[in-house]
Amino acid sequence: MKEFTLGINVDHVATLRQARGTTYPDPVTAALQAELGGADQITIHLREDRRHIQDRDLRIMRATVQTRLNLEMAATKEMTKIAFECKPDMVTLVPEKREELTTEGGLDVALNRELYKEQIRFLQDGDIKVSLFIDPDLDQIRAAHKAGADAVELHTGSFCDARSPAVYEKELQRLLDAAKTCAKIGLATYGGHGLNLQNVAPVASILEITEFNIGHSIVGHAVFVGMKDAVAEMKRAIAAARN
Ligand code: PXP
């Protein structure tokens, strides 16, 4: 089996908490349970509007997560300063719009290469690895590489949303081509967004993709089976596809 990292995004445990402004359910507890279930990394998105994860969650998780902490954030001055001080193991830069329900597309690194280059260098100087969340697009991959990113996370959302066999095949091929290009130029390749137990196998079988970040479907499944079992089930599904 080809090794992989499973990052569990616990944002939506915080979504439930924020819906009532209570102290429960705590995403910090969810992170611990995810680690007990086999998570290799905890992923959280500190959004500008703080709609789910709060600064306090980041602070406590930095002190308690025993695997690795991956902070998703927009490339803003405020967030870069927070990351530099808090020192997650990795930052994943994502585009962010206030009105979106969830991250909608990848970064346009090709258009804003100098901006990302500057942010990446600043974070790397703070001993933080930087991954860029991009669509599986060859121009974006080349731009990410030139900007000095340590890794790219390929947006798997279009593949997950495919409703016809033709679109499904096209989107899977895009992911495959993108992952092969990354491998060729020596850029670590991750994947995430929209993955669940039903659609993960074809993406997991792309061996160039070595890390998967999965949140919504796992938190949803955890409501019925518990976080530990939901994570363990996903880990088995990905491992089986890489045999
Ligand atoms: N990767 C990135 C960069 C994301 O922004 C998200 C959503 O926060 C995920 C992975 C996880 O997506 P999902 O919640 O659909 O599994």
Domain tally: 1
The amount of helix comes to 40-55%
Identify the CATH homologous superfamily.
Answer: Aldolase class I
Specify the biggest β-sheet.
Answer: 8 strands, parallel, barrel
Strand order of the largest sheet: 1-2-3-4-5-6-7-8
Which range does the strand content fall in?
15-25%
Can you tell me the CATH topology?
A: TIM Barrel
CATH architecture: Alpha-Beta Barrel
Overall mean confidence score, pLDDT: 97
CA-to-CA gap between the ends?
Answer: 4 Å
Q: Please tally the helical runs, counting DSSP H or I stretches of 4 or more residues.
A: 11
- The shape, in one word, is globular
- The low-pLDDT segments are none
Bound molecule types: pyridoxine-5'-phosphate
CATH class: Alpha Beta
By secondary-structure content and strand pairing, the structural class works out as alpha/beta
Radius of gyration: 17 Å
H/E series: EHHEHEHEHEHEHHEHEHH
Please outline the helices and strands:
Blueprint: E1 5-9, H1 11-20, H2 27-36, E2 41-45, H3 55-64, E3 69-73, H4 77-86, E4 90-93, H5 113-125, E5 129-134, H6 138-146, E6 151-155, H7 157-161, H8 165-185, E7 188-192, H9 200-204, E8 209-214, H10 216-225, H11 227-241
Parallel strand pairs: 1-2, 1-8, 2-3, 3-4, 4-5, 5-6, 6-7, 7-8
Helix pairs in contact: 2-3, 2-11, 6-8, 10-11
